[in-house]
Amino acid sequence: MKPKARYHHGDLKEALVRAAYVLIAEDGAENFLLSDACRLAGVSTAAPYKHFRDRDEILEIVVARAFDEISGRSMAALAAKGEGTLEGIIAMGEAYVTFAAQEQRLFRLMFGQNPKLKQSESVLREGRRCFTNVIEHVARYCESNRLPGDPRAIAIRLWTFVHGIASLLIDEDYAVVAPDLDVMAMIRETTPLMLAPAGPATSR
Length: 204
Fold this sequence. Notes:
disordered N terminus
């Protein structure tokens, strides 16, 4: 079957996005070529320009989908352990770090490899949705355990913690200074401390 006969208008666009996602996940955005996506999707090299503004628009869609993927994995992990539970929130953090470890090239693109992508409405929407999930379930945990504190501030603290772990892990910094470190154990041990109410400040 000829490539032109395989796709309807919307299907061709979707095929190119899926091809781009696969190629970036495998080889990184810095090595991504539209011609390679066309080849993988089985379409002509002119096809992308009928459906996308430019290469960056495809990257924006890929990043938005990567946020959707990390959000889906986190929510599935939480559901398996129980919403509103400590175990569920820990599972979300573990899922975040696991995604980074398994999808390093996508993760790098999501967070700063191409700063222009952060201005995309679709990227902002999916990124905020991902973070809103964390806030919501931290709030549920605090409510069910009658803990004081601002769920958003706690969620930022948790995200900063797991994002730092993910970045150090994929940059292989832990391999240099702490090669035997169990990062998942660290998440399990530290998350309860971050959820606990802060003690009163002391003056000296």
